[in-house]
Amino acid sequence: MNHEREELDSWKRKFSRKSSIFKRVSKQAQTKVNQWIPEKAHNVVTESIKKMVEVTLKGSEWVPLQQVSVKSSLKEREALMKERVEFYRKAATIEGAGTGAGGIFLGLADFPLLLSIKMKFLSECSAIHGYDTKQYEERLFLLYVFQLAFSSDSHKKHVLDIIENWDVEKEKLKELDWRTFQQEYRDYIDFVKLFQLIPGVGAVVGAYANYQLLDQLGEVAKYAYRIRYFHDIE
C-alpha cells in the first residue's frame, strides 16, 4: 500500500501548485463575462443544470449490482474502474463525434448527453467501492468528485479539502451550491466545446474533447475514491 499512498500524495500535490498565467487570465475573463450576464439568465442556467443533474442522479439507480462487483482490494477495485472508464470514454468519443458533426444544434445537445455519461460512470465507481448511490450523501459525493475534475484551480483546492474530510464535511452539506457548480463547469469546458459547434471541425474536436474529459474524470475518480478507501481502513 505504500506505493499507492505515495502515488496519491504526489497527485494531491498538483493542487497546491500555482495556476498558470493562461488559466488565471482565462478565469478572470470568464468571471467578468459572468458579471455582465443578467441575474435572471444565471438563474435559468443554474436551474436547468440542477434539474439535468438531478434527473441523471435519479437514473443512477439503474446500475445493476450483478454487473458491478464490489471488490475487496484496492487494486481490484481500481482495475474495474479502469475498465469502466474505457467503456464510457469510448461512448463519449462516439457521442462527441456524432453531435459535433451535426453543427450547432446537435453540438448543443452534447452538453446533457455528456453530462449523463459522466454521471453514469461516477455512479458505477461508487458501486464498485461499495457505496450506495440511493443515499443522498453518496450522490452528493459524486458531485464533489465531478467538481474536482471540472473546476478552476482555486475551486479544486476547496473541493479536495471537502473530499479529504468527507466524514466531517458531509454532515454540514445539506445542499450543493448549484450556482457555483454550473459556473465552474461551464467555464471549464466552454472554450474547448465552443469549437465543437463549428461545421467541418466539430466532429474531430467533439470526439477528442470528450475523450480527454472522460479520461480526466477517470483519473480524478480513481484518487478521490482512493482517499476514501484509506480513510475507511484507518
UniProtKB/TrEMBL annotation:
Q: Which InterPro entries match?
A: EcsC
Top-level taxon of the source organism = Bacteria
Q: What is this protein called?
A: EcsC family protein
Q: Which organism is it from?
A: Rossellomorea aquimaris
